[in-house]
Specification:
With about 190 residues, the chain is mainly beta. The protein has two helices and ten strands. Strands 1-4-5-6-7-8-9-10 form an eight-stranded antiparallel barrel. Keywords: Signal.
Length: about 190
């Protein structure tokens, strides 16, 4: 009797997809951006952007907590909108960046918080320092892309980090130590 119940339970779990594996999605670099902003001397909010970066999402629609994400981009791909600011950010005052210096994020866990929301916990490596961060994420939509004709997913996320945690705290607190980050990405199912 116990074997029959166990077999029935396993069949039910298998039928509902609980054993489904995460599927690999790759970021659509043309529709994925990371914006960051900080307060400048109390007078303004200054913005910067990363775009055109690469990454993978292992997306498990049946069990979102089993998903994962990994993203990497060159520090020098940062766009500040003003050449002198970019040069200052890349100087020894901040990044002292070379062409090989990268920013990366790798998830270590996902905590589902709602039907389309989750906290993505992971390690952010910036300026050679790795710290844990939590991204408050929302699944905007998943389904077949109307033009590409294949599975697609879109996500937004936000977090706040302290520059000083990554040894980038020069001029704080006049220039805010807190940096707000807004992320919007699209990802397509890998071939």
């Amino acid at each position: 009797m116990k074997k029959t119940l166990l077999a029935a339970a396993l069949a039910t779990v298998a039928a509902t997809g609980a054993f489904a594996s995460p599927e690999k999605y790759v970021l659509d670099a043309s529709h994925s951006q990371i914006l960051f902003s900080y307060n400048h001397l109390g007078f303004s909010t200054t913005w910067g952007l990363f775009s055109g970066f690469e990454g993978d999402v292992m997306f498990d629609q049946e069990n979102p907590a089993g998903s994962s994400v990994s993203v990497t981009m060159p520090v020098k791909s940062m766009f500040t909108g003003w050449e002198e600011r970019f040069g200052h950010f890349m100087s020894q005052d901040f990044f002292g960046a070379t062409d090989d210096d990268m920013v990366s994020f790798t998830s270590t866990g996902i905590e589902v918080t709602g039907e389309t929301t989750a906290n993505i916990i992971g390690d952010l490596t910036l300026n050679g320092v790795t710290k844990p961060v939590v991204l408050a994420a929302n699944l905007n939509q998943s389904g077949d892309h109307p033009m590409a004709g294949k599975p697609w997913a879109g996500f937004d996320a936000t977090t706040t980090v302290l520059r000083s945690d990554f040894e980038l705290g020069k001029f704080a607190p006049f220039v805010s130590d807190e940096v707000s980050i807004q992320i919007s990405v699209e990802a397509m199912k890998a071939e």
